């Protein structure tokens, strides 16, 4: 069918070609050929008549050819040639008829020659033309037949197309086309999705969904590589690469945000994003760089803010300054708020780093173990390498970040001179820095040498200036002190003072964990670290402000005594305070152990005391003065510095010891220095106390008057650390017998010193814990040589009162009038005993009068009674030693008098045994000794004076020993006395 169709087309085309060829050649049927000639052809081809004429006119062929050759070439150019126009243009301007006619005839000849030539050619080709025409006719008949065949073939083809091609092959073709279009549609949809990726990526970045954005971008890049044969996709691929780089930049910014405020969800996204990019290690490098930058930017902005705020003008020159120079422009008023804000900001950075490390540790622990698959194992190896790198980087970064923090804070600390700070302000600075050092210790185990060195330099500078001022202040206090009782509550405890609140572990943010463990009051649980306490909220550098607001101090009694009724009832105070804890009813409670000191007295002991305990009517309240309280407060302040600054602990403890030394020296100078009444035989001042007083005078007291020549007692630098000796206030009168020679003031002064010593004893463990190991012997020596001697001052101070309170001279005069060489035993004692006992009764009454104003503790009353009884007994011995003549009956009278004295005295005092009782009894009994026994007695009893021993030899033994023996005994007495001289 197909070949038939092709043949039909060829035949058709052939017929058309022949027709067109005939048309171009002008060959038609004989009937049409002449009729269809154009006007030109009619003109050029002669008519039949002309042809006949031409045939009839014989023309020479050669001549005819010449005529044709003579025709202008232009007539043979083309059919569009206008020969009439050509000939007219050739006419001359002036026409000549004859010439025109001649020229016309010439043209006619030319035409005739051409026409004849054409006619000859036609006639010559006539048979061939007829023959060819017959062939054309036959061809036309064949073509008609071919047309019929083609028509039939087309009809058959139409039937075949309709029945087979359209139904089956068309279906297959459509299916194939559908399959191709489906694939194309899928590709187009993917391309459309890829082209819309930018919008979705932007949305995801705004939502901070960095992992999703990177995942999408990587998937798009993978898809783009699949469809890279599309021209639109090739451009998209480069755009996706740019977008991925942009995401990395935004991811870097997001990573930097974690340096100040760590958010777990945010950090999860960022780390997952870097993992998808395969840049975990790069992320860690970038993170450390951001932390370093964050520290620098944070501190600079904080300090800049305060500097600009204090500057108060719009000058922007501060922004161009270096951080170190900027720190020097901080004012004193803004120093602490700026330091606090600085530490708060740095804490946020360090907390973020701590939480970052914590996140990585938890993340590593949560990861599942690797599978045995080779590909998974290889991937797991890479993961292990990444983890190892991250862990080492983070651990190394701890030290680097803390070092940066230290250097920034150091620059701030050294930028200001703190020597003129108020104490409380300086303590706040130390507290903040100490808390920062604790943060450093918990952060990376650092001892913060940089911070310690800088704060130590400032502290030494400040402390020297501060201590010098405090010593001068203490001297002023002592010189203006009237030694009146400072009314404090009976349960007064130094822990109630603001200055000692730092020792309470729960309220002390400045105490490091090691110190807390050392000074813990028995708490079994270890206090959590700052990073645990403030992991999610809060800031450790806000605590000292809250602590300050919470401080309350209630240590003073309302009106000097806690109740006026205490005057009326001895035990009322003990019956009315049942709601007060037992330990608060004691003088003070040791804050370390919670136990009462040995000197505290129980309720039963108090109730068992008799009238000689002059402390009952003042409820056992501690005896101290305002100056004592001031010294205690200073000690608390100094200890605060020590607890915060261990490097200068020795300097501070040395200064603490000087406070106590100066107070002790002042009390001794005011009340105990009186050589007139000192007796070395009584040992009023021990060699240890004497050594201590001499040491204080040499090391601390500036004995040089202002007008004297400087440099005699040492260089100027050494004298700067010394303080002039204090002078007792003129308001204090110690010569009035009505007040027992200032007994109240003496009690207040001495017992306040003893109370101060007790407080020092209670603080020894704290001081020892703060003291460097190499310097601990100094502290031990201070306590053993100085603090423990405080109570020893009672003897010389109260001796002066005891020596003046009773008229011992009168007793000697009365004893001198007694006759001792009697011959009969007397049953009645002598009058001088009654006089002496009346003196003691009067003394007892005056003690009671004094105790109404100042509580006289039992140890004080005991010392007073002991001194008075010792003096009385020694006066008795002295009186007996003045006797010129004495009989055995007289010696018995002495014993009677002394026994009467003892019996009545025991009713006045609870002091047992009676002091120096044996001193008198032994002297009296020595009368009965033989010569040999007396010699041994003289050697063994050196407590008696040479006069007293000589009197024994001369008076007592003189009656029954010879002169030689007496001389021998007197010589023995003289030998004993010689070393003393």
Q: How would you describe what is shown here?
A:
- With about 1000 residues, the protein is mainly alpha-helical.
- Among the domains are: about 100-185; about 480-505 and about 620-705 and about 725-800, no CATH class; about 815-930, no CATH class.
- Helix content is about 65%, strand content about 0%.
- The protein contains 38 helices and two strands.
- Strands 1-2 form a two-stranded parallel sheet.
- Helix 26 links the parallel strand 1 and strand 2.
- Helix 27 (about 745-760) packs antiparallel against helix 30.
How would you concisely characterize the structure shown here?
The chain is about 65% helix and about 0% strand.
Structural class: mainly alpha
Residues in helix, %: 55-70%
Give the low-confidence spans: 1-12, 27-44, 505-524, 545-550, 560-613, 707-713
Average pLDDT rating: 77
Strand segment tally: 2
| Rounded radius of gyration (Å) | 67 Å
What amount of the residues lies in strands? under 5%
- Main sheet record: 2 strands, parallel
Described by the principal axes of the CA atoms, the overall outline is rod-shaped
Quaternary assembly: single chain
What strand order characterises the main sheet? 1-2
Distance between the termini: 169 Å
Q: How many helices does DSSP assign?
A: 38
Key traits:
981 residues; mainly alpha; two-stranded parallel sheet; 2 strands; disordered N terminus; protein transport
Q: Topology, please?
A:
Blueprint: H1 2-25, H2 30-33, H3 39-44, H4 48-56, H5 61-69, H6 83-90, H7 97-195, H8 197-206, H9 210-226, H10 231-257, H11 264-277, H12 280-311, H13 323-327, H14 332-366, H15 374-414, H16 423-444, H17 449-480, H18 513-518, H19 530-533, H20 543-550, H21 572-575, H22 603-608, H23 626-644, H24 649-672, H25 687-699, E1 701-702, H26 716-720, E2 723-724, H27 743-762, H28 764-770, H29 776-785, H30 794-805, H31 808-816, H32 831-851, H33 858-881, H34 888-908, H35 917-925, H36 931-940, H37 946-956, H38 963-977
Parallel strand pairs: 1-2
Helix pairs in contact: 1-7, 5-7, 8-9, 9-10, 9-11, 12-14, 12-15, 14-15, 14-16, 15-17, 16-17, 16-23, 17-23, 17-24, 23-24, 24-27, 27-30, 30-33, 31-32, 31-33, 32-34, 33-35, 33-37, 34-35, 36-38, 37-38
């Amino acid at each position: 069918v197909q070949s038939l169709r092709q043949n039909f087309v060829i035949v058709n085309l052939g017929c058309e070609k022949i027709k067109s060829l005939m048309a171009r050649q002008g060959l038609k049927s004989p009937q049409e050929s002449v009729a269809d000639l154009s006007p030109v052809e009619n003109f050029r081809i002669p008519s039949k008549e002309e042809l006949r004429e031409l045939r009839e006119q014989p023309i020479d062929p050669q001549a005819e050819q010449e005529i044709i050759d003579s025709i202008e070439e232009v007539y043979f150019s083309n059919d569009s040639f206008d020969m009439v126009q050509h000939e007219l243009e050739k006419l001359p301007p002036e026409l000549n008829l004859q010439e025109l006619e001649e020229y016309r005839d010439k043209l006619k000849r030319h035409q005739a020659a051409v026409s004849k030539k054409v006619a000859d050619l036609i006639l010559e080709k006539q048979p061939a033309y007829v023959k060819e025409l017959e062939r054309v006719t036959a061809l036309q008949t064949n073509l008609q037949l071919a047309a019929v065949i083609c028509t039939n073939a087309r009809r058959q083809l139409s039937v075949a197309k309709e029945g087979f091609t359209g139904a089956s092959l068309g279906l297959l073709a459509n299916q194939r086309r559908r399959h191709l279009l489906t694939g194309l549609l899928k590709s187009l949809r993917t391309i459309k999705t890829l082209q819309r990726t930018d919008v979705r990526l932007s949305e995801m970045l705004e939502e901070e969904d960095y992992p999703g954005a990177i995942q999408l971008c990587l998937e798009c890049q993978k898809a783009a590589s699949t469809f890279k044969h599309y021209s639109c996709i090739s451009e998209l691929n480069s755009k996706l690469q740019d977008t991925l780089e942009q995401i990395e930049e935004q991811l870097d910014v997001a990573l930097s945000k974690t340096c100040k405020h760590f958010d777990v969800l945010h950090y999860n996204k960022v780390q997952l994003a870097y993992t998808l990019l395969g840049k975990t290690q790069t992320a860690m490098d970038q993170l450390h760089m951001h932390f370093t930058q964050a520290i620098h930017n944070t501190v600079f902005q904080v300090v800049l803010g305060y500097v600009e705020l204090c500057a108060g003008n719009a000058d922007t020159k501060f922004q161009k300054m270096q951080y170190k120079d900027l720190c020097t422009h901080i004012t004193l008023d803004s120093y602490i708020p700026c330091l606090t804000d600085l530490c708060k900001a740095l804490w946020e950075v360090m907390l973020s780093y701590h939480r970052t490390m914590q996140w990585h540790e938890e993340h590593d622990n949560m990861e599942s173990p690797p599978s045995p698959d080779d590909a998974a194992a290889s991937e797991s190896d890479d993961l292990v390498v990444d983890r190892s790198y991250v862990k080492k980087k983070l651990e190394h970064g701890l030290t680097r970040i803390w070092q940066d923090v230290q250097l920034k804070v150091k620059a701030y600390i050294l930028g200001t001179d703190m020597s003129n700070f108020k104490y409380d302000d300086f303590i706040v600075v130390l507290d903040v820095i100490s808390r920062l050092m604790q943060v450093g210790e918990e952060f990376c185990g650092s001892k913060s040498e940089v911070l310690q060195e800088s704060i130590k330099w400032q502290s030494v500078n400040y402390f020297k200036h501060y201590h010098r001022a405090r010593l001068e202040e203490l001297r002023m206090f002592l010189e203006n002190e009237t030694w009146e009782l400072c009314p404090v509550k009976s349960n007064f405890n130094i822990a109630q003072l603001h200055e000692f609140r730092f020792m309470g572990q729960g309220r002390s943010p400045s105490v490091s964990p090691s110190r807390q463990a050392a000074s813990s009051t028995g708490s079994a649980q270890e206090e959590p670290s700052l990073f645990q306490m403030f992991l999610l909220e809060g800031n450790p550098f806000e605590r000292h402000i809250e602590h300050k607001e919470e401080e309350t101090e209630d240590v003073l009694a309302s009106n000097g005594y806690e109740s006026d009724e205490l005057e009326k009832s001895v035990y009322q105070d003990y019956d009315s305070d049942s709601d007060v804890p037992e330990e608060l009813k004691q003088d003070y409670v040791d804050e370390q152990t919670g136990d009462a000191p040995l000197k505290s007295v129980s309720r039963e002991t108090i109730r068992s005391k008799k009238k000689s305990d002059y402390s009952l009517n003042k409820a056992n309240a501690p005896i101290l003065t305002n100056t004592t309280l001031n010294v205690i407060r200073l000690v608390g302040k100094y200890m605060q510095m020590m607890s915060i600054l261990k490097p200068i602990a020795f300097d501070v403890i040395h200064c603490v010891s000087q406070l106590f030394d100066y107070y002790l020296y002042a009390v001794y100078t005011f009340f105990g220095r009186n050589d007139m009444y000192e007796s070395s035989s009584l040992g009023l001042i021990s060699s240890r106390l004497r050594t201590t007083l001499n040491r204080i005078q040499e090391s601390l007291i500036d004995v040089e008057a202002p007008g004297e020549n400087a440099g005699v007692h040492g260089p100027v630098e050494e004298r700067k650390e010394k303080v002039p000796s204090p002078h007792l206030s003129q308001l204090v009168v110690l010569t009035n017998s009505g007040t027992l020679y200032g007994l109240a003031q003496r009690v207040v002064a001495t017992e306040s010193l003893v109370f101060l010593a007790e407080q020092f004893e209670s603080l020894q463990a704290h001081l020892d814990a703060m003291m460097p190991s190499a310097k601990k012997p100094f502290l031990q020596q201070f306590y053993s040589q100085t603090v423990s001697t405080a109570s020893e001052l009672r003897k010389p101070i109260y001796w002066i009162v005891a020596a003046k309170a009773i008229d011992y001279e009168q007793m000697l005069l009365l004893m001198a009038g007694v006759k001792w060489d009697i011959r009969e035993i007397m049953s009645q004692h002598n009058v001088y005993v009654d006089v002496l006992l009346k003196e003691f009764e009067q003394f007892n009454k005056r003690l009671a009068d004094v105790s109404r104003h100042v509580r006289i503790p039992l140890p004080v009353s005991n010392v007073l009674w002991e001194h008075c009884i010792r003096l009385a007994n020694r006066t008795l011995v002295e009186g007996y030693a003045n006797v010129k003549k004495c009989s055995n009956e007289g010696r018995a009278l002495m014993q009677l008098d002394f026994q009467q004295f003892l019996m009545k005295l025991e009713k006045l005092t609870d002091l047992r045994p009676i002091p120096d009782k044996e001193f008198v009894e032994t002297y009296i009994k020595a009368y009965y000794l033989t010569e040999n026994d007396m010699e041994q007695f003289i050697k063994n009893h050196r407590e008696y004076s040479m006069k007293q021993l000589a009197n024994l030899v001369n008076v007592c033994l003189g009656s029954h020993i010879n002169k030689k023996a007496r001389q021998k005994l007197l010589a023995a007495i003289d030998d004993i006395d010689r070393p003393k001289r």
